[in-house]
Amino acid sequence: MSALAQYFLQRGYAVYGYDLTPSPVTEMLQRKGAKIHFEGDVSQIPATLDRVVVTPAIPKDFIEYQYFVKNNIPMYKRSQVLGHITDELRTLAVAGTHGKTTTTSMITHLLYPEQPLAAFIGGIAKNLNDNYVCSPSPDTAVVEADEFDRSFLTLHPEVSVITSMDADHLDIYRDVEDLRDAFRQFAAQTRKAVLVEEAVADNITHPGKRVYGMESTSDYYAYDMDYQQDYSRFCLHTPQGEIQDLALPAHGRYNILNATAAIAAVLEAFPKMPVDRIKQKISTFEGVKRRFDYIVRRPDFVFIDDYAHHPNEMRSFITAVRKIYPNQEICGIFQPHLYTRTRDFADEFAAALDLLDRPILLPIYPAREKPIEGITSEFLLSKMQNPNALVLGKEELLPYLQTHRPQVLLTIGAGDIDRLIPQIAEGLL
Fold first, then answer.
1. Alpha-carbon dihedral of residues 126, 130, 134, 140, nearest 10 degrees?
2. 27 in a domain, yes or no?
3. Quick check: helix, strand or coil at residue 66?
4. The pLDDT of residue 58
5. Average pLDDT along the chain
6. Same domain for 208 and 255?
7. pLDDT value at residue 355
8. Number of domain units in the chain
9. Which of 201, 169, 170, 204 is CA-nearest to residue 186?
10. Is 288 within a domain?
11. Closest Cα partner for 349 from 324, 322, 385?
């Protein structure tokens, strides 16, 4: 939503908005001229409004949403507006139940500023310090294609990436097969090439399907991986030839997969991109805020933040941290996101959290949902085997950490846990 707001501000529109709480993103939009309020208040809505863009996170009974309905003010889903913008450009779109924000950021970094483009990213790319960039006259779009609410079906990209198809959003999809059907439809709407991660490639049929991964049977595959504390090195096989000795300043097997997907997508769209530029760009990729994001990095204390909110993402993140810090105690603070997701994947969340030496659970972040009886962080705790696990309220967290100082601390989750980071970092330094 904030990237779209910037797009319209850049084009001279008056932009108004509502959000639940102030944040660095809303402050940035206000500095750029958006008028934003934080309480449901129809008097804040200008009489001259011509259109409204809504996110599925807004409840249908919200007072301002109902105002637009009653006054017949045209409302468009965020995805519809994004689809309209990108239909006029050659588009590279990244879909998947995880990995899409980092991969979208990598593609943007590989292309910008040499290629005139508009990029709409689902997180803050550190190279840009933004989730949006737009050249004066873009001819290419790079977009994160969200499967929630079937949003990505408004897009018709030239090249698409599918990073994963794990069961998720089961409040929207009947089951995992229904979700996969939506990904198949997304692939069918792709005009040229569909890059599919090898683990899910059998689910997609498309004349332009290209498989990427780490197996030599794939069209694009990484090999000779070397994981270091500060970076990962790998080589990449492509249909155009080998790319040797790539250095990626990111951690974990999954980030090499993300880089493989990003390079593959760029080469499908721009096959003449020089290899030297690809290597230089990948070596200067700074990552995405809240994706394996180092907050503190000292010999005696490491603090890493990550947006992981699905069990498979959490497992990948914790496993990557363990490889870097194999002999240190790892304490992880997890804020479950959504009652339905906690209910649907309770066993999987419990197993992922048990990988930590000391798991701490915060209360569930509800986002758009109302509570479900019996679905709490205590319910999740009851599923866990780790004897060190506990549930704490936000106000109990810092005192606990100060008396049980961790060697490696992780904050994990997609809610508002990131608002606690400055307080935790200051309290433990």
1. 60
2. yes
3. helix
4. 87
5. 94
6. yes
7. 98
8. 3
9. 204
10. no
11. 385
Which domain does 43 fall in, by range? 2-73
Q: Among 6, 48, 13, 55, which Cα is nearest to 29's?
A: 6
| 168 in Cβ contact with 341 (< 8 Å) | yes
Burial code (b: 16+ CB inside 10 Å, e: under 16) for 374-410 equals ebbbebbbeebeeeebbbbeeeebbeebeeeebebbb
* Beta strand segments in 208-339, E: 209-213, 220-227, 232-238, 241-248, 293-298, 301-306, 330-334
Whether residues 228 and 89 share a domain: the answer is yes
Same domain, 100 and 249: yes
CB 310 within 8 A of CB 416: no
Are 231 and 307 within one domain? no
Are 255 and 232 in contact by the 8 Å Cβ rule? The answer is: yes
CA distances 371 to 281, 368, 414, Å, are 45, 10, 17
Concatenated DSSP letters of 4-56: HHHHHHHTT---EEE-SS--HHHHHHHHTT-EEESS--GGGS-TT---EEE-T
Q: Are 100 and 76 in contact (CB under 8 A)?
A: no
Claim to verify: residue 277 and residue 177 sit in the same structural domain = yes
The secondary structure of 254-266 as a DSSP string is: HHHHHHHHHHHHH
**Nearest 10 degrees: Cα torsion 235, 130, 169, 74:** -140
Please tell me the pTM assigned to this model: 0.87
Residue type at 409 in one-letter notation:
L
97 lies in a domain? yes
Beta carbons of 216 and 237 less than 8 angstroms apart: yes
Does 59 share its domain with 139? Answer: no
Question: Whole-angstrom Cα distance, residue 55 to residue 354?
Answer: 34
Contact 365, 337 (CB under 8 A): yes
pLDDT at 170: 67
Cα→Cα distances 330→185, 209, 230, 388, 393, Å: 41, 40, 18, 12, 20
In the predicted model, residues of the chain with pLDDT beneath 50 are none
Residues 118, 26, single domain; the answer is no
Angle (CA) 187-93-290 rounded to 5° is: 125
CA–CA dist 202, 418 (Å, integer): 37
At 375 the pLDDT is 98
- CATH code: domain of residue 89: 3.40.1190.10
* Whether residue 144 sits in one domain with residue 96: yes
Q: Which amino acid is present at 27?
A: E
CA distance 149 to 214: 31
CA distance linking residue 359 with residue 169, whole number of Å: 25
Q: Which residues touch 31 (CB under 8 Å, ≥6 apart)?
A: none
Q: Which of 219, 217, 251, 218 is nearest to 234 (CA)?
A: 251
